[in-house]
Amino acid sequence: MKHKGHFQALKSVPLPDAAPGQRAALYLRVSTGRQAENDLSIPDQRRHALAYCAAKGWEVAGEFVEPGASGTDDRRPELQRLLDLATGDGSPFDVIVVHSFSRFARDHFALEYHVRRLRKNGVRLVSITQDLGDDPMSVMVRQVFALFDEYQSKENGKHVLRAMQENARQGFWNGAAAPYGYAVVAAEQRGAKTKKRLAVDPVEAEVVRLMFRLLKEGDGRCGPMGVKALATWLNDHGYRTRRGARWGIGPLHKLITNPAYKGEYRFNRTDWKTKAVKPDDQHIAVAIEPIIDAPAFDAVQAALKARNPKTTPPRTVTGPILLTGVATCASCGGGMTLRTGKSGRYRYYACAASAQKGKSACKGRAVPMDRLDRAVTQSLADSLLTPDRVGRLLEGLMKRQDARDEDHGRRLASLRSKLTDAQTRLGRLYELVEKGFADLSDPTLKDRIAAAKSERDIAQVALDRAAGELNPAARVTEERIAAFTEIMRANVLEGETPFRRAYIRSVIDQVEVDDNEIRIRGRRTVLERLVMRGGAAPAAVPSFVREWRARRDSNS
């Protein structure tokens, strides 16, 4: 039982020093790809770690190597794999060996969180160069080390950023992928470092020039294109991105609005972590060779801005759409979006992938909106929202309710015992503090009080939930099912579109639109909750899990 495992972990006491014969895992990390490529640090860490384990008499059960990964956060694949193994059932090691705590984490909060998490699962984190115990003094020293490592990491980051800014001022490239149409080339050698610049890639540059020509003039058969028409044209004519993918509207819009193509690349424009745009006075202009002349680039930007619906309102303002977010194309799985014809007189659900990327992405399909809305709502009312159908779907739940009543008394007694035990231990700890036998500032005591509080709260919630299951109002009955279907049929078939849409989305996950049929999918668990709520629509949108339409018997 999940709560039981948590209860046992929180009761853990300080771990003794790892004894000879125990299993060890080595975690080896360097911060930069250059260090990893040149083998400057990992072999040295491995050599020292193996010697340390040999001296302790520990068996090395595995190695986890993280080449070129920052220690300022824990988004590291090998670290996550190590933590999953160490904190899972039957950990394959008893101790994790690192060269220094900074190799494990350079964030003091993350380090302390993982140390305590490992400790609760019977695994110690040991540093070769900072060998500490588990007593309060050692814990304090480790936290000081972690704070210093975090401070040093932030200071190093400032120095690196200043060096990169100066590099950009001199016109050199600092790294990352070059914009489409450019390539990174060696510019000059300064000692052991190779300075690089952006240079025009002849092949990709021609595609960029073609894009701007189509945006400005068209292809001879039509006038100037918009972004969507350009994406469709490129995909239909076999043009692909650098990675071989089809062009999408978003990436294409980002490309054609990049001022680098007129020779105005800017470094230090956004924060590398948050992606927030920095103030203009922090941007550094880097001179590069333009692909598009400035007047042509500016003319295209002006045309895009003039067609922006945020600037120029559309001619037809549409109201809410009944099947927004649930209607999907059977061919590609993409969403179905609104399309209009004859100045808005006709409205259709159409495949978004086909509309945005052209027929090469999906053959697409369009269905009159009123026809699909009517088919879906009538199918729901006639094939799902009937007492007989809902009763059959929830038959298993009703049988489980009857079986659950038999052992409910034993469950309640066990939960009350756990709650009493947690409350008793918490009271004893408070009594020690009140009588002066213990100091509340002691980290170990604070951990034990927090653990006891957590166990008490978990037991109380479980007891309340179990007691609530005996409440007649919490049971699914035939009367409740009949009332639910009557309310839901009325809400799905009648009323304003926003309210009908909310109730439809509360009971179904997906409407898959094919050429000759539609397939409606939903979940039994959603039906159970809705029956208990009396047909009230939940606030959250259900995820795509297909259950109650498993036999494909809800097709219209």
Overview of the molecule:
The protein has 4 domains: 2-153, Rossmann fold, CATH 3.40.50.1390; 182-306, Hect, E3 ligase catalytic domain fold, CATH 3.90.1750; 320-394 and 476-556, no CATH class; 406-474, Helix Hairpins (Orthogonal Bundle). 48% of the residues lie in helices and 13% in strands. The strands form 5 sheets. Strands 2-1-3-4 form a 4-stranded parallel sheet, with helices on both faces. With 556 residues, it is an alpha/beta fold. The chain has helices spanning 2-10, 33-38, 42-56, 77-87, 101-104, 108-120, 136-169, 202-216, 227-236, 249-256, 294-306, 352-357, 369-384, 387-393, 395-406, 408-434, 443-469, 478-493, 497-507, 524-532; strands at residues 23-29, 59-66, 95-98, 124-127, 182-190, 193-200, 264-267, 284-287, 327-329, 336-341, 346-351, 366-368, 510-513, 518-521.
